[in-house]
UniProtKB/TrEMBL annotation:
GO terms for molecular function: N-acetyltransferase activity. Gene3D superfamilies: 3.40.630.30. The keyword Transferase applies. InterPro entries: Acyl_CoA_acyltransferase, Diverse_Substrate_AcTransf, GNAT_dom. Signal peptide: none annotated. The keyword rRNA processing does not apply. This is Acetyltransferase NATA1-like. Residues 1-22 are annotated as: Disordered. CDD domains: NAT_SF. Keywords: Acyltransferase, Transferase. Residues 1-19 have a biased composition (Pro residues).
Amino acid sequence: MAAAAPPPPPAPAPSPPTGVPESAPIGHPIFYRIRLATPADVPHIHKLIHQMAVFERLTHLFSATESSLSTTLFNSPPFHSFTIFLLEVSRHPLLPLPPSPHFTPIERVITRELPLIDPEEDQFRSMGNGDVVVAGFVLFFPNYSTFLGKPGFYVEDLFVRECYRRKGFGRILLTAVAKQAVKMDYGRVEWAVLDWNVNAIEFNELMGAKVLSEWRICRLTEENWNEPSSWW
């Protein structure tokens, strides 16, 4: 009788997986949040406005102080007067904020191939929030269109710090204002752009905004108010 065949050799142990699990994040996530600014944010807001004045080559017109901002910005409920959305970012998931009766923060995450280096993160660290930093802001307030018979929003300032530019955050801030306008059944959102800022003009056109070349901004400033007799 033939001898029994020897048992098959044991199967080799499976090699440990070398790929990235499908559920694991790929790249470098940036967690971001749009929230309403509060009086406690004034030091960051003041620094952002100064950086914006430098970028726009208008530092000779910059005279705002933390005191003047604190005194004038937060005297009315949000959206009924001057309102600021702050953009906060972090490399880690954001801790929840206390609920607000006026606005629910918008929180999302984007992923980049390379890490984002913020050389000013210590100067813009959000108080009590670990590694959360303030990256930009948008300031807006109501105006009115008699043609539409509806209020709207006018965006006075939209600014993102340099290391966070060209990453979609400007669009995110402006979209937050537009969504709030829709929520309140407002008729439109308007803003101005410097004629030399080609990148900003292209950005606005990509957002679907129409650049109105037939209109010019007229401005009466405080130094002229001291001579009312010149008005007539």
